[in-house]
Design goal:
Elements lengths: L1 H15 L5 E2 L9 E5 L5 H9 L6 E4 L11 H16 L22 E9 L2 E2 L1 H9 L8 E7 L6 H10 L4 E2 L4 E3 L7 H11 L11 E6 L2 E7 L3 H12 L2 E8 L3 E5 L9 E5 L3 E5 L3 E5 L3 E11 L4 H7 L7 E6 L4 H4 L11 E2 L13 E4 L2 E4 L1
Parallel strand pairs: 2-3, 2-4, 4-6, 6-7, 6-8
Antiparallel strand pairs: 1-3, 4-5, 9-10, 9-17, 10-16, 11-12, 11-17, 12-15, 13-16, 14-15, 14-16, 18-19, 19-20
The site of flavin mononucleotide has 20 residues, from helix 2, helix 3 and strand 4.
Length: 367
């Protein structure tokens, strides 16, 4: 009896949790890979369960806005009608069946795996809607595709995916799972994953930029708890501090927040970027010995170039710290972006933007 109740509870739970949602992530590289799926009769849902037992990923289920429809009724009449509407006018948003709103931001992910049913040798209409609406945001993502059909081959679905995501970077060939091998999906997925090219973590995080009076120099960071915490801070937003010349060897001032220290007696040299007393940053154009935590070194400037760049001898010097990849987006003024103009997420001005996520007046907007 207890077992029957448990099974009933599980069925109930699976019914009630069928709204579009992001399910809890696994801890280690959570946020890196998103699995997006649609499932009408449950096969793709089973494929996703198997897939996410093998990789760490967040999961997003796409749901049609209109509930209770029977796509297979009358010899699949409704499913066919939805696909024909898309085929007749694939560039018109009105051709695609409405889906429930999705709040998951694709900007959090480098890899996206799409799991979709095949309908009449095409991609199921509901999944097509999601890809159509998110085409711009998927540009440059590493995208994988798993297709579930009863028996038909999947080349039409692959073509749909390429049409809907023209700027995606495909991880490799799509995986086809059908009625005859669905029960062997664990080994099929395991082997398929080995052939897929997942995007690695960004490697630019060992650098930051310092901008003073419109001039920007890169800094190579050392690897310690202070730089990790600083990078985390700068991932949210660039930080601007006011520094003053001191002692004939540095400009320094309060960061406005504290970083973890690992102080040791250090002789700072020209170009060194140093944490002093846990909450002050010092940029050196000369030399000094003190108990410091090293943060990094300004790249490639001679001592005299450092004096010019750091405005040696001056007071109230406005210094902005930012991460290389985010400077143009979060601080558009520094890249001479025009007011009212629309920019892609990587800072390119877009004359005729289509749907998607853009930057306008320094803020993200959705068109
Ligand atoms: C509207 C509709 C059309 C379909 N057309 C085909 C088809 O042409 N060929 C095929 O092999 N399977 C077809 N199928 C079956 C599905 O592709 C297959 O059952 C798949 O595993 C369903 O995934 P799901 O259970 O996640 O919804 C169709 C299913 C539906 C609902």
């Amino acid at each position: 009896m207890k077992q029957i109740l448990l099974i009933l509870a599980a069925i109930l739970f699976s019914c009630c949790s069928s709204e579009s949602e992001v399910k809890a992530a696994e801890p280690a590289n959570a946020g890196k890979t998103l699995v997006v799926y649609y499932s009408y009769t449950g096969n793709c849902r089973e494929i996703v369960a198997t897939l996410t037992s093998q990789i760490q990923a967040d999961v997003l289920e796409i749901q049609p806005a209109e509930k209770g429809l029977r796509y297979e009724a009358n010899n699949y009449a409704l499913g066919t009608q939805l696909l024909n509407a898309i085929k007749a006018n694939p560039d018109d948003a009105g051709s695609y069946p409405a889906i429930d709103p999705v709040t998951t931001s694709l900007s959090d992910y480098r890899n996206v795996i799409i799991v979709t049913p095949l309908w009449w040798s095409q991609m199921a209409a509901i999944m097509q809607t999601y890809l159509f609406l998110n085409s711009s945001e998927m540009a440059g993502k590493h995208v994988g595709l798993i297709v579930s059909s009863h028996s038909s081959g999947i080349s039409g679905v692959v073509a749909d995916a390429k049409r809907l995501l023209p700027e995606a970077t495909w991880m490799g060939d799509a995986l086809w799972i059908n009625a005859s091998n669905h029960s062997k999906r664990a080994s099929l997925i395991e082997n398929w994953l080995k052939t897929q090219d997942f995007a690695e973590e960004q490697t630019t995080m060992d650098k930051l930029n310092i901008t003073i009076d419109g001039a920007t120099q890169s800094v190579t960071l050392v690897d310690n708890a202070a730089t990790k915490a600083l990078v985390e801070k700068l991932q949210q937003t660039p930080v601007t501090v006011t520094l003053n010349s001191s002692g004939g060897f540095e400009i320094w001032g309060a960061l406005g927040f504290s970083l973890p220290t690992s102080n040791q007696q250090t002789t700072a040299r020209p170009g060194d970027v140093i944490l002093y007393n846990g909450s002050n940053i010092c940029l050196f154009y000369g030399s000094n010995s003190w108990s410091y935590t090293r943060l990094g070194k300004i790249d490639g400037l001679s001592e005299s170039e450092l004096r010019t760049f750091l405005k040696a001898g001056e007071s109230d010097i406005s210094v902005t710290l930012s991460l290389p990849a985010t400077t143009d987006i979060q601080n558009p003024a520094s890249s001479k972006q025009g007011e009212g103009d629309i920019y892609s997420l990587n800072g390119q001005r877009v004359a005729n933007p289509s749907k998607g996520l853009y930057i306008k007046n320094g803020k993200k907007i959705v068109l």
